[in-house]
């Protein structure tokens, strides 16, 4: 790791008005209220739809296996071309919902043209084991172990109006907004049925983070001048608890239902006095508009407080953390992890159509669908200080569409394009592509 040559100095955070925060909250709240009303209006349709099984399910063997080993060819505008392998083994058995167990994995390396050189920029290897029917069907345990390394991970500073302008020139200007992210993680979420629509949820996240900092980079400057932690290697432990409401008819490509998560979490680290808490909520609704068209909406909010390491400040949700304002599962079109802050809000609205009937390719059933979406998001450095957040509502957005393929029940692959004018470094052309496993939510 490169240590900072800069003289450490703390700069107090300026106190400014709450108006940008309130304006952003009102904007996202309006969208949430609008589509929450739409979900209520479709409640009766959802209730009647749950009683009917689609024609494929009625003809499937209740004690079947699904096995799909495939080469993984994907990528996105942030990390370039991804190559590797992925697999999924799923056991269905009678009335076990959504399956008896699932074992999946992905092993990928990405390559990107950086400064005229096509080179390796990211590795991601993960294994997942999901067992829903433990202890008489009352307990579900979903465990993921992964290793990740990204030599062009992004850090542009804290706040909704963060920028690299004014940063002292370094030896490599292209690296000023980057660092090398590297970690090993073991995450597990336990869901316990309570006899009500609310499942109790408990999560653990054990990880070792060992980032490397580029000389003259923004994070090197922020660590030295603002005391932002996270530049030293550290073991971190996160414990979280809350509730989950899940009425989706299909977890991989749902047509109706809701998926709500909310809770609180706490994280402690072995270095730099890292210790912080988080409150979070993620509310997803799936509203059928006939048999072939579905409207989806998701609202996510996260508030982190304490000494948060910089690489966690772009993420939200202590159960299964993910980047929010930027990236293929957040605000699409905005560069991944571009915006970071203690307070984050995001809203996704999407139409999915499946106009083409399912058909067979060899032994697999294939479904082809289309998507059109609008994503919105904003971050705040702190609820009491918004000097780096700007003085406008500052809603970042992405709009786009694409298509997806669903093999059998559990394997989904999507291709999407998104337009967003928010801080795009890609030669001034604000269009991003995403080729990935799984739908966005």
TrEMBL record:
Report domain Bacterial surface antigen (D15) positions.
191-404
**Could you identify this protein by its name?**
BamA/TamA family outer membrane protein
Can you say where in the cell this protein is located? Answer: Membrane
Secretion signal span: 1-38
Q: Which Gene3D superfamilies match?
A: membrane protein fhac: a member of the omp85/tpsb transporter family
User: What are the UniProt keywords, alphabetically?
Assistant: Membrane, Signal
Where on the tree of life does the source sit, at the highest rank?
A: Bacteria
Q: Name one Pfam family in it.
A: Omp85
């Amino acid at each position: 790791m490169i240590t900072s040559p800069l003289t450490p100095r703390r700069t107090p955070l300026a106190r400014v008005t709450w108006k940008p925060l309130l304006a952003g909250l009102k904007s996202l709240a309006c969208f949430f209220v609008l589509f929450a009303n739409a979900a209520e209006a479709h409640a009766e349709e959802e209730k009647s739809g749950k009683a009917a099984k689609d024609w494929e399910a009625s003809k499937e063997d209740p004690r079947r296996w699904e096995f799909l080993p495939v080469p993984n060819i994907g990528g996105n505008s942030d990390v370039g071309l991804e190559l590797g392998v992925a697999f999924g083994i799923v056991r269905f058995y009678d009335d076990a919902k959504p399956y008896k167990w699932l074992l999946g994995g992905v092993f990928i390396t990405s390559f990107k043209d950086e400064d005229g050189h096509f080179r390796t920029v990211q590795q991601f290897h993960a294994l997942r084991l999901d067992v829903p029917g433990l202890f008489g069907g009352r307990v579900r345990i979903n465990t993921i172990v992964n290793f990740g390394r990204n030599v062009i991970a992004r850090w542009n500073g804290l706040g909704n109006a963060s920028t690299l302008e004014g940063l002292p020139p370094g030896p490599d200007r292209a690296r000023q907004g980057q660092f090398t992210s590297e970690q090993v993680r073991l995450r597990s979420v336990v869901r316990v049925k309570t006899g009500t629509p609310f499942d109790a949820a408990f999560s653990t996240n054990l990880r070792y983070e060992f980032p490397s900092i580029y000389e003259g980079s923004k994070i090197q400057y922020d660590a030295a001048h603002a005391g932002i932690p996270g530049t030293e290697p550290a073991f971190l432990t996160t414990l979280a608890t809350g509730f989950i409401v899940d009425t989706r008819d299909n977890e991989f490509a749902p047509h109706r239902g809701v998926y709500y998560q909310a809770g609180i979490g706490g994280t402690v680290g072995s270095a730099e006095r890292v210790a912080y808490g988080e409150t979070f909520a993620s509310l997803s609704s799936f509203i059928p508009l006939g048999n072939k068209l579905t409207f989806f909406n998701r609202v996510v909010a996260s508030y982190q407080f304490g000494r948060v390491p910089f690489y966690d400040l772009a993420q939200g949700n202590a159960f299964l953390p993910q980047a929010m304002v930027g990236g293929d599962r957040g605000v699409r079109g905005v560069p991944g992890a571009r915006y970071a802050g203690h307070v984050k809000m995001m809203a996704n609205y999407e139409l999915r159509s499946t106009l083409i009937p399912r058909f067979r390719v060899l032994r697999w059933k294939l479904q082809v669908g289309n998507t059109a979406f609008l994503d919105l998001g904003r971050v705040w450095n702190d609820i009491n200080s918004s000097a780096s957040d700007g003085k406008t509502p500052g809603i970042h957005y992405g709009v786009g569409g694409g298509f997806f393929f669903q093999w059998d029940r559990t394997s989904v692959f999507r291709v999407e394009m998104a337009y967003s004018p928010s801080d795009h470094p890609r030669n001034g052309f604000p269009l991003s592509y995403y080729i990935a496993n799984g739908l966005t939510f």
